[in-house]
Design brief:
alpha/beta; Rossmann fold; five-stranded parallel sheet; 5 strands; binds thymidine-5'-diphosphate
Length: about 210
């Protein structure tokens, strides 16, 4: 019997929304109750997920650069990630749980930095050849809440040092994309307690 193609699930949200808190728990839920026997969950992240991608991540998170260079490097890392990790995993029937994907590029480089969404859509078509997440969980919080949460975090990277205005534009673009693709997106009110969020995540796990 040929193995059914796996599911591709992405986690998104502005820095400080708290998505990282929920990733590992979500993976365990998938493995326990959802992934078919014999398949596993591949957990990965962007930018990153491959050796080349992790090198690009270091540059992207720490070096200043032109906004188009930033978008191109995000998509270069993504091309490698799709070709060597994501697509092979989905083809063999594994599920892929990815911490950020192309919605982050539209939100951060498009919304936050103001890069043309048309240019990003061109790169998306080129690099992804139709690949898109089956389900995207968007952890949504007001900019102010995210900024307070980030305040307590470790030494900020290039993006975490951005202004509240940048994160408001980023959040708005995430919400706009979610409104455009309501069947793919689940919006999670990340101001809720961890327990309440887990109740919602359980519903999502069973509905996938
Ligand atoms: P993040 O996923 O928040 O990791 P950590 O929890 O270690 O900070 O960091 C990745 C950063 O990269 C985040 O600030 C968003 C940014 N980013 C983009 O600007 N565009 C993209 O396409 C992706 C994938 C990430």
């Amino acid at each position: 019997m040929t193995q059914a193609r796996g599911k591709f699930i992405t986690f998104e949200g502005i820095d400080g929304a708290g998505k990282t808190t929920h990733l590992e728990w979500f993976r365990e839920q998938l493995e326990r109750s959802r992934v078919p026997a014999g398949a596993s969950v591949v957990m990965t992240r962007e930018p990153g997920g491959t050796s080349l991608g992790e090198s690009l991540r270091q540059i992207l998170l720490h070096e200043p650069m032109h906004l188009e260079t930033e978008a191109l490097l995000m998509f270069a890392a993504r091309r490698e990630h799709i070709a060597t990790v994501i697509e092979p995993a989905l083809s063999r029937g594994d599920w892929v749980l990815c911490d950020r994907f192309t919605d982050a590029t539209f939100a951060y480089q498009g919304g936050g930095r103001g890069l043309s969404l048309d240019k990003l859509a061109t790169l998306e078509r080129w690099v992804q050849e139709g690949l898109e997440p089956d389900v995207t969980l968007l952890f949504d919080v007001p900019t102010q809440t995210a900024s307070e949460r980030r305040g307590a975090a470790r030494e900020p990277d290039k993006f975490e040092r951005e202004s509240d205005g940048f994160f408001t534009r980023t959040r708005d673009e995430y919400l706009r994309r979610a409104a455009e693709a309501p069947r793919r997106f689940a919006i999670i009110d990340a101001t809720q307690s961890i327990e309440n969020i887990r109740v919602k995540l359980k519903d999502i796990v069973s509905s996938i």
